[in-house]
């Protein structure tokens, strides 16, 4: 087993990394300016020219971009190369408004695979491993991203895609999958189905690692997955605008390594738009440093996270982001208080009597917002006494209140009552918007 | 064996839940002897005594219900005034608390039976036996 995929880059001294980033930033600022009328106009509006960008810290002089720009220039108005350079498109379906289109040169696809090759190697995967890719294939970036990344490290790909869960489990057993990549909620569902089939992931399969992403999840869910299946659960991060799933935790599971030769990341306070200090919560902003068809300049992803520039104990010097708390789009405001579904999740997953699935329903009764959290009662916790069930529901409510500072109505439902998802779970139903 | 196994099912308070439980048991060839529903707002607990507890439990569990088994007593009610008082009084005098109770009439023998969930089943069995109250056995419940 090899320890690093690209040791020279991954362990590069920080000063050298910064020097590399500075050169690439200067290059790419000029590149987008020369290749795209969208960026020329933006730079002009912000009163900045490529020559103004000399040091790494000059990045703050550049204008922000966002999903809105992507929609306004639909489909390919932010691309920096003509279409005959593009070897692939991916399209993400916007829940609101137009979809967003991203494009890749062959080099962009290779960089994406390189990024994942480093990450997969860092969690101990390589030649001889069988990686079951249970992310959706097609327009969604998850399936093909993990597919090429896995092939790059010489692992065997089992491209099951999503769905047909019983068959997924049979193949997992028959072909001996050692790792799986999917959303954490789909893996919990796979485990549920496996149990019904009489298959224990721990005892009856060779699975040792899961690469879970495409939706925010909590430490508590990680513990549940690891305790119930015996595998190691790793966080993976990336959005379609950035190319797709790109960055993973290393085997130490302490933050996601963001390869600094590929992206310059900032975490900002969305109110002041200024960078926050290391360790402080803020909104992730990315500038690509090795992306050609569709580069990003200070793109506001909208994900809320914490930046950690300390080198990791694994020897990698690149910055890490701590677990994604959620996306600003996912944040719900209930009675004026900001709530991230992941906060609700971390409370629920601490309570063993509660199942793995939950749903948050926000509605308006008269002038008041009402938040209802539906949770499934596990069979082992079900006692036949109404009083026990009532006190369970009160306990959930009390714990939610202590973390979120709002009173939520807790509804106990039957197992299986909350719809399962093979992709991203739909955790929030906001009836106020209908 | 005087301790009876009762099956409890967690159910949301929604139309059709009861029918689903009943159909699942019918499909498994399990007959319901006695049944009661305890409600608490959004959810409730359906409690049942059936002729074949093991088969009933398995059918409901496999059908995706949240099920548990509880030990209860089945007491024959004397068809005389004060029959129920005698039972309640005997338990009360001996510091046995009744969590809940529900009655049913057996089809074959036309006898009134009372299902009792108590906090100390051992003690309840002793004191009821001493007081001359007849407790139905598991085998009887299967046959009635
Ligand atoms: Zn590390």
Q: Explain this structure to me?
A:
Chain A has twelve helices and 21 strands. In chain A, strands 1, 10, 11, 12, 13, 14 and 15 form a seven-stranded mixed beta sheet that branches. In chain A, strands 5-4-6-7-8-9 form a six-stranded mixed beta sheet, with helices on both faces. Chain A has a four-stranded mixed beta sheet with strand order 20-19-18-21. Helices cover 32% and strands 23% of the residues of chain A. Chain A has 434 residues and is an alpha/beta fold. The termini of chain A are far apart. Chain B is α+β, with helices and mostly antiparallel strands. Chain B folds into two domains: 3-71, 2-Layer Sandwich (VC0802-like); 72-143, ACT domain (Alpha-Beta Plaits, 2-Layer Sandwich), CATH 3.30.70. Chain B starts with a strand and ends with a helix. The relative contact order of chain B is 0.22. The model of chain B has no long low-confidence stretch (mean pLDDT 90). Classes of the chains: A alpha/beta (434), B alpha+beta (144). Chains A and B meet through helix 12 and strand 20 of A and strand 1, strand 3 and strand 4 of B. Bound molecules: zinc ion (ZN). Zinc ion is lined by residues 250, 252, 257, 312, 314, 316 of chain A.
Compact description:
Chain A is of the alpha/beta class and 434 residues long.
The major β-sheet of chain B equals: 6 strands, antiparallel
Strand coverage percent of chain B: 35-45%
Let me know the CATH homologous superfamily of the largest domain in chain A: ANL, N-terminal domain
Please mark out the parts of chain A with pLDDT under 50 across 5 or more consecutive residues, or reply none.
none
CATH superfamily of the largest domain in chain B: ACT domain
Structural class of chain B: alpha+beta
Count of separate DSSP helical elements of chain A:
12
- Poorly predicted sequence stretches spanning 5 or more consecutive residues of chain B: none
Task: Write down the overall geometry of chain A.
Answer: globular
- What fraction strand of chain A? 15-25%
Total number of strands of chain B: 6
Quaternary assembly: heterodimer
Largest interface: A-B, 17 and 20 residues
CATH topology tier name of the largest domain in chain A? Rossmann fold
Mean pLDDT of chain B: 90
Shape label of chain B: globular
CATH architecture of the largest domain in chain B: 2-Layer Sandwich
Number of domains of chain A: 2
CATH fold assignment of the largest domain in chain B: Alpha-Beta Plaits
Calculate the terminal CA-CA distance of chain A, rounded to whole Å.
Answer: 53 Å
What's the average pLDDT of chain A?
94
């Amino acid at each position: 087993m090899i320890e690093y995929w690209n040791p020279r880059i991954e362990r590069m001294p920080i000063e050298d990394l910064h020097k590399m980033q500075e050169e690439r930033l200067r290059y790419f600022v000029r590149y987008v300016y020369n290749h795209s009328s969208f960026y020329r106009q933006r730079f002009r509006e912000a009163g900045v020219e490529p020559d103004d960008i000399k040091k790494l810290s000059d990045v703050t002089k550049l204008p922000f971009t966002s999903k809105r720009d992507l929609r306004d220039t639909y489909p390919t108005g932010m691309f920096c190369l003509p279409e005959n350079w593009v070897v692939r498109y991916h399209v993400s379906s916007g829940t609101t408004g137009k979809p967003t289109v991203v494009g890749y040169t062959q080099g962009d696809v290779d960089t994406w695979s390189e990024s994942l090759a480093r990450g997969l190697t860092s969690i101990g995967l390589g030649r001889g491993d069988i990686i079951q890719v249970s992310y959706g294939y097609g327009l969604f970036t998850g399936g093909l991203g993990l597919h090429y990344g896995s092939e790059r490290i010489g692992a065997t790909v089992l491209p099951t895609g999503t769905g047909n869960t019983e068959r997924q489990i049979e193949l997992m057993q028959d072909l001996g999958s050692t790792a799986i990549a999917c959303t954490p909620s789909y893996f919990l569902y796979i485990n549920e189905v496996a149990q019904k089939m009489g298959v224990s992931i721990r005892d009856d399969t060779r699975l040792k690692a899961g690469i879970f992403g495409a939706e925010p999840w909590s430490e508590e869910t990680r513990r549940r997955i690891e305790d119930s299946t015996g595998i190691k659960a790793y966080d993976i991060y990336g959005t379609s605008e950035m190319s797709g799933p790109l960055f993973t935790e290393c085997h130490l599971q302490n933050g996601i390594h963001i390869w600094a030769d590929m992206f310059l990341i900032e975490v900002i306070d969305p109110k002041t738009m200024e960078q926050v200090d290391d360790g402080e919560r803020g909104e992730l902003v990315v500038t690509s440093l090795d992306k050609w068809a569709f580069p990003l300049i200070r793109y506001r992803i909208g994900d809320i996270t914490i930046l950690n520039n300390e080198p990791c104990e694994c020897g990698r010097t690149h910055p890490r982001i701590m677990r994604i708390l959620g996306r600003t789009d996912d944040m719900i405001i209930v009675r004026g208080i900001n709530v991230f579904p992941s906060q609700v999740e971390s409370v629920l997953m601490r309570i063993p009597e509660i199942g793995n699935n939950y749903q948050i329903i926000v509605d308006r009764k008269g002038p008041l917002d009402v938040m209802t959290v539906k949770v499934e009662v596990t069979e082992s916790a079900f006692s036949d006494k109404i009083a026990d069930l009532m006190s369970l529901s009160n306990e959930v409510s009390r714990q939610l209140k202590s973390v979120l500072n709002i009173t939520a109505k807790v509804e106990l439902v039957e197992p299986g009552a909350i719809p399962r998802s093979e992709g991203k779970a739909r955790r929030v139903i906001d009836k106020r918007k209908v | 064996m005087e301790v009876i196994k009762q099956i409890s099912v967690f159910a949301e308070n929604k139309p059709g839940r009861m029918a689903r439980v009943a159909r699942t048991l019918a499909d498994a060839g399990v007959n319901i002897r006695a049944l009661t529903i305890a409600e608490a707002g959004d959810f409730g607990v359906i409690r049942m005594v059936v002729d074949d507890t093991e088969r009933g439990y398995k059918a409901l569990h496999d059908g995706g219900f949240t099920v548990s088994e509880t030990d209860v007593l089945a007491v024959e009610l004397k068809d005389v005034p004060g029959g129920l008082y005698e039972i309640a009084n005997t338990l009360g005098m001996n510091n046995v608390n009744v969590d809940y109770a529900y009655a049913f009439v057996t089809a074959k023998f036309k006898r009134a039976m009372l299902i009792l969930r108590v906090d100390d089943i051992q003690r309840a069995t002793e004191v009821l036996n001493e007081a001359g109250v007849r407790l139905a056995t598991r085998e009887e419940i299967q046959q009635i």
